[in-house]
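During the no-cost extension, the postdoctoral fellow (Dr. R.K.) reprocessed legacy sequence entries with the updated structure-token encoder. One reprocessed record is reproduced below for audit purposes.
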Amino acid sequence: MNTARQQDINTLFSSEQACVFYLFKKRWPEGFICPFCGRKQKEMAPAYTVVCRYCRKQTSITAHTLMHGTKKSLIAWMQLSWQFCFRKRGLSAREVQRIMVLASYQTAWRWLQKIREGAAQAESVPCRGNVLFDCASLPTPHTSEQPDPCIAIALEQNHGNSTGSRVLFAVLASRSTDAVTAAANRLIFRNATLQLRDQQWIDTGGLTEQYSYKLASREQLQQGQLLIQETTDWLNITYRGAVDTRYLQSYLAEFSFHHNTAFWPDPMAVFDHLLGGLISSTDNPPLPLEKGSTRGRLL
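Re-encoded structure tokens follow.
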């Protein structure tokens, strides 16, 4: 990681109060809005805990967010979030344990899962425009007794090259019409044009009743295959194949976050994007893992 970047973040968030001010403005950019009575209070000064002047109920900047109930300092949250953003190969729980000087591996793992959920929330806006939609299996080790997990992939085709395209994934319980259609509805805006692999998807009718469509070109399919290979390699390099598929959705969300922000010119914009996911309301959580998904280890 660039040392200058780390120094910038240490300077920007050098105190808890600096973190409070930043997160308060991030959560309520137009002034505090009471989550109980809904009244806006522009004159409310940034503070970790605030009391509504109308209903007198108390809330905090982390209440009803992924950061709710945390025992970690806000400075630590900022530092770990920054590390997460700029480690393109991913951040393992062991690394979090070492970087944040934690005694417990489980504490590091749970904390990192919260960050991944924030990344998923930040990247929860569905794909739009022309979207390559396909399903694929991720290979598991030969020792695995479970079938390879199946995922749906949605890749925007709205830019001149793959570096500017957003990608989203959903873990599937099966390749049934209902499961695939449900995944498409979660990953893609309804007014999008799907680019599909073959006539099979068109004949089922599950997708084409809700979207316009056309057959994908060979180049587009190759782009999707390369992305699946890149995802598999990333999982293997970062986690050495030790990914429990119960949590595969969160790992794929981490990959999507890095892929989709890789060419953003402003590092602070990437960091702010993640914080937006962490500080957003948990009343609308990110995509959950599909029920019935397999367990095992991913290469």
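The longest strand covers residues 130-137. Residues 284-299 have pLDDT under 50 and may be disordered. The remaining legacy entries will be reprocessed before the final report is submitted.
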